Give the backbone structure.
Amino acid sequence: MKIKQFIQKNRQFWWYVKDPFQLDESAIVEGTIKYGDMAEIRQLLKILGPENIAKIFINQIKGKRINYDDRTINYFKQYFKQYVQ
């Protein structure tokens, strides 16, 4: 599956965006982690790669505006530890 197919299949994650195909990888990762289930997250991991997603996620939670709840942050910090040094 390619990223465009993934976006098309999961358009509900970006319901508020007129054209979700214009989103950058950071927005795709955020929408998938925030609204997706583990099967969808695994699909995204296969498409973008776990190292890439880990870097994006870590950068997102370092920012001032964080859209994840505390449990999600804790879970994925632990999950991505193996990919980020």
